[in-house]
Structures are given as structure tokens and as C-alpha cells.
UniProtKB/TrEMBL annotation:
Protein's UniProt name: NADH dehydrogenase
Lineage: Bacteria, Bacillati, Bacillota, Bacilli, Bacillales
Keyword Ribonucleoprotein: no
Residues of the FAD/NAD(P)-binding domain: 3-283
Species annotation: Aeribacillus alveayuensis
Stretches that traverse the bilayer: none
Amino acid sequence: MKKLVLLGGGYGGMRILHRLLPNQLPNDVEITLIDKNPYHCLKTEYYALAAGTISDQHVRVSFPEHPQLHVHYGEVTEIDINNKIVHLKDQEPISYDDLVIGLGCEDKYHNVPGAEEYTCSIQTIDNSRETYRKLNNLGAGATVCIVGAGLSGVELASELRESRPDLKIKLFDRGKIILSSFPERLSNYVQSWFEEHGVEVINGANITKVEPNVVYNHDEPVECDVVVWTAGIQPNRVVRELPVEKDAQGRVVLTKHHHLPNDEHVFVVGDCASLPHAPSAQLAEAQAEQIVQVLVKRWNNEPLPEEFPPFKLKGVLGSLGKKSGFGVVGDRPLIGRVPRLLKSGVLWMYKYHNG
């Protein structure tokens, strides 16, 4: 039997499983999925889990079941590409014939002293649970500082405002206006929403140090009770330690068929892959579709596609609490109720088709 090993049951890994199973997987191939959790996690909803507006159950989706799929629970510690072995914490290593690395990302702290030690995170489900515990144990009138006003920071701040209106929320943004890479009309809408709902947006921020209950903005101390870090991501440590070519962001450089240039049996999907778009669940799924095509054609001894069409991403949707939102769909900015309803619909469809 040939062994396909998937590292991580994230959005890319799940799309690969659902495309191969039940009908495209040859009888002589078995799949081993390695993940720390016994379920697929909806990472795009971690902000709501941390804010306390949804339960843990809402961000879990069961892995598919199939006689040729074996789910192995464990933490990957090292990948030995030369010997085709995956090392696991406190467990026996697992060998592979083909490997898909989808280990996701971690917070990037930009060498800010104290940031890793004294801030909360929403990068994993465990991080999000711990952040939920700290945020929702705060007394009335406590101050929460959220560092980083990208999509995650904006959604967390707005959801926390809805969950805990008694808290003082400060959102630190490096730009002159929030979400500055989005259309100006959309950025103005989100900035105004925060002003109207009593969230303090601190534009032009530069966090230089973090200490217990203190954030330093341009070296000026800002006292708070909890700090949540949403100011950038980097590939998983295991991927960062791989002796392979990487781009300026530390993501793995791949061929047009999504495998290592010098090893056609090692693929990288999702946040760890060097791709012409910002990391997202949508991008990981689009890439996974192409990886499946490569695997199936190779297993069937068929020629690989000479070129793949460019990724067609549908857009970005974000929430501002449960009743408002924002987004860009087909280059068209959307604000208000409609993008929030669209996001809820997309989430429902995903859970319906993958559950």
C-alpha cells in the first residue's frame, strides 16, 4: 500500500480528504491524517469563541470516515524529508510515500519584548479557549488591549464589544485608518462603527514592549487587564525549521504543482505555502483542489497538468458583531447587514457540506 500522510486537518487538509474520498482514492493508497485535535477546527471563527458569543461546539467539524483513512492524534515535532519520516511527540515516527504539510501558522511577535510572554492569542483552539477564560473572567470596567487591527483584530474587538459591553476595549492599528488595504469607503465604515460603539481605535500605533498589564505604544505605557495579540502570523515552527527554500515571509517556495522543487513527494498547503495571495481558508482550499489533481494523475500514471489556472478567490467577508459586517466580493465593497448575512451563510454551507 502507498501511504499518503496529511499533516494537519485544517481547511486544506479537509478539502483534500473530501475530494479523494470516497471515489478518487485508488485501492492501493491509504491516508493517514495527523492532527492534535480529534476534529477539524473552524479557525475563522476563533474570534467569536474567544469573545464568548459562540460555544466550543460551533467551531468543531468531524473528520470524514473511510476504511482507507486512519486518523492519528499527535503533535508533529520534526519532518525528516531525506528519510521520509514524520516525528511525533512521545510517539513512534510515521513514514510516508507522499506527504502534504498543512500545519498552519503561529503568531508573529516581530521581536517585541514581552509580546509572546504576556499576551493572549487566538491562533489555535486551545489558545482561543484560554483567551475566552481570561476575557470573560474580567470584572466590569476592565480594559482589554487588542494589538493588531487586521481582520482577526477587528472581528475580535467588535464581537467582544457585543459580548461584554461593560469592558473598555482599545484596538491598536499601525495604519492611518483601520483596514487601510481595503477600499476607503469600507475602512471609513468600520472606523465609524467602532467610534459609535465605544471601541477606542488607536491609529498609527507602534507597540514597542509588553509587560504584565502594560502595553507600550511608541514607548508610552498603556495600562490594561488583558492583552490579545493579533498583529501578524508566521508558518508553524516545524516548517520554519525545514531545510528548504523559503520566501521573505518564511513560507515554503513550491513548484507550480505545489511540491518542493527537489522533492515531488512533499507538498505544502495553506499558510505555510508561498503563494501569490495572502493566506486564507479560501486560498488553502483552492490550492488543495490542485494538489488532489496532481496526486490522482500521478497515482494513475497520467501526465500532470502543464499549467493550473490562477486561483479564483471570491472575496473577503468580516463581521462587526452579529448584526453588521463588511467585505469585498468581486472587487465590490459591501458594508452593513448584507455582508454579515453572507458570512453566516458561507459558514452554514461549509459546516453542512463538511459535517
